Amino acid sequence: MKEREHLIYKYLRSSKRFPHIWCPGCGIGILLGALVRAIDGGGYSKDDIVLISGIGCSGRLPTYVDFNTLHTTHGRALTFATGIKLANPSLKVIVVMGDGDATAIGGNHFIHAARRNIGITSIVINNQTYGMTGGQFSPTTPFGLRTSSSPYGNLESTFDICGLAREAGATFVARSTVYHARLLEEMIGLAILKEGFSVVEVMSHCTTYFGREIGLESPVEMMKWQRDNAVRVEKAEELSEEELRNKIVIGVLVDREAPTYHELYEKLIAKCRLEDNAL
Amino acid sequence: MAGCRFYAGYPITPATEIMEQMSWQLPKMGGVFIQMEDEIASLGAVIGASLAGLKSMTATSGPGFSLMQEHISFACMAEVPCVIVDVMRGGPSTGIPTLPSQGDVMQARWGAHGDHPIIVLCPSSAYEFFDLTIKGFNLSERYRTPVILLTDEGVAHTRESVMLPPKEKLVIEERRKPSVPPEWYTPYDDRQTGVPPMPAFGEGYRYHVTGLAHDIRGYPTTRSDEVGALIDRLFSKISRDFHLLQWFDSYQTEDAVVTIIAYGSVARSALRAVKEARERGLKVGLLKLKVLWPFMRYIVMKFLESSTKVLVPEMNMGQLSREVKRVNQGRCEIVTLNKADGTLLSPKEILGSLQDIYP
């Protein structure tokens, strides 16, 4: 308990007007706690961390913590992050997005940031709905579900965010749920350590809207659902596709090496300068 | 030369040449060039790089400029310096790639959502392009605001020789940094100039940047007193220096009965038309605007008062002429000459119009 108090004093912005905007029982607070502990555990200077968000419930997250923080436009957080990382590669750039933010309006930026393998840590908090606007269906909402914008049932199939990141070229991809808070902290810590483009998908719950839509009324029930349906990646390898249906595979899914864009660019500058001096 | 060290863009004719040159030159200067996945991303990266301390720019044409409007609005609200070049081509939509037009004059002013101030500069020659680019970066850094260089395909693709001034004669402005330690720094408070000093991310001033209406500490607010003060300051930081943004050329306007008000490549045709008309004994003159927004109403008013008629030729269906008419308020007769078919307004057409309306 003592350690936790210490972290709050160290990282929470005392000048910010509280309370925060999240509903009681929301998963974003758990993510923020895991993120702060992971950063603290990594021993980074607060001055070197840039925390960026898009729009939505997750968009408010950087406001509360004492880093260089940037709240951008809907879906475009990764583009701002790209500019910051290239302008100053010594900064640790962390982007927090929601599922709609990262894969609907920002889907294009997401796949291209992954393709470039630029040194950005992307945390996608997936609550399977547009919470801030009142529970419309998102690219990760299950097929057939009734939501406030699919009153007759959702006709669209879902994105696998981790699969998308892997295929697009991310060099580190992991998943956790907010129920598995310690694992989440560990996954975020590893993602920040990674030099290339890293993605952590965080399965979360929107108790206010999504819970009502799927018939789970309380955050406790929703987190129990996460607990009961999560499968560690090591165990998932032994299971058949049928057994894995509707399960959440958690752990490190991808960890590979590839040259990063900002390193390649620094080499390019060195080369151009050498040639220029030779002339 | 202006100190730009970051460029992010997306290919679009007739602005691609700017991007290609940047991809060639910037790495040699230690600067950053990146080709992004679209124009929204381009301006996003430009704003990010500017927050990290680099002077940054992008260039595009009409369709891409439309995509950038969301982030122009963000840069106004979060007060992030950046320069955006729009090389206008025929529209609407994909329009006529790539013939000249001046169809984005109002988009440059009002395209971005929400009420916001904007600075739009308009060159009509290669040298003015050079000069206004440097001035544009200076204004952008001085006022912490996006600056738009609005030009057309005619000017952008014109090749002409220029005499560049020696580097030491150029005035290059740098961003004002805070002089107080981080714990005393209030990101959006400055009562002296209206423009708060701006540290780069990573310099120890950990502050919050948002597109939401914010208080002087940068945190979101909906309190009307705080929002009102913010919007007032965004406007007044530029309007208080309105008298410094009066860049124009006038030619033979002293005794002109008819004055042409023109900008961009049309101003070149107009100059020729004025010379030819003078040879025929017509007392005509030219006022060439180099700043379109904020609209220099007092300068224009002076010419409206001294002339019997004013001709506003434009390669659109009448955009800046609306502003001239608004300022006119019955001072003289305003005649418009509009064309939006992808061809340049020729000196002959302007001369013909001058002859028709000459009293």
Chart the SSEs and their pairings.
The complex is a heterodimer of chains A (279) and B (359).
Chain A: H1 2-11, H2 28-42, E1 49-53, E2 68-71, H3 77-87, E3 92-98, H4 99-105, H5 107-116, E4 120-126, H6 161-168, E5 172-177, H7 181-193, E6 198-203, H8 210-214, H9 219-229, E7 230-232, H10 233-236, H11 241-244, E8 248-255, H12 261-278
Parallel strand pairs in A: 1-2, 1-3, 3-4, 4-6, 5-6, 7-8
Antiparallel strand pairs in A: 5-8
Helix pairs in contact in A: 2-7, 4-5, 5-6
Chain B: E1 4-9, H1 16-25, E2 32-35, H2 39-51, E3 55-60, H3 62-78, E4 82-90, E5 96-100, H4 105-110, E6 119-121, H5 126-143, E7 146-152, H6 153-156, E8 208-210, H7 224-239, E9 248-251, E10 258-262, H8 265-279, E11 284-289, E12 291-293, H9 297-306, E13 309-314, H10 320-328, E14 333-338, H11 347-357
Parallel strand pairs in B: 1-2, 1-3, 3-4, 4-7, 6-7, 10-11, 10-13, 13-14
Antiparallel strand pairs in B: 4-5, 6-12, 9-11
Number of domains of chain A: 1
Q: What is the rounded Rg of chain B?
A: 21 Å
The portion of residues assigned to helices of chain A is 40-55%
Please identify the structural class of chain B as seen in this structure: alpha/beta
In CATH, the architecture of the largest domain in chain B is 3-Layer(aba) Sandwich
Instruction: Give helix % range of chain B.
Output: 25-40%
Tell how many strands the DSSP assignment of chain B holds.
Answer: 14
Domain count of chain B: 2
- How are the strands of the biggest sheet of chain A laid out side by side? 2-1-3-4-6-5-8-7
Q: What name does the CATH topology of chain A carry?
A: Rossmann fold
Q: What portion of residues of chain A belong to β-strands? A: 15-25%
Q: Quaternary state, please?
A: heterodimer
Mind telling me the CATH class of chain A? Alpha Beta
Largest sheet of chain B: 8 strands, mixed
**H/E order of the elements of chain A?**
HHEEHEHHEHEHEHHEHHEH
What's the tally of helices of chain A? 12
- Let me know the number of strands of chain A: 8
- Provide the low-confidence segments of chain B as ranges: none
CATH homologous superfamily (4th level) name of chain A: Thiamin diphosphate (ThDP)-binding fold, Pyr/PP domains
Distance between the termini of chain B: 48 Å
CATH topology of the largest domain in chain B: Rossmann fold
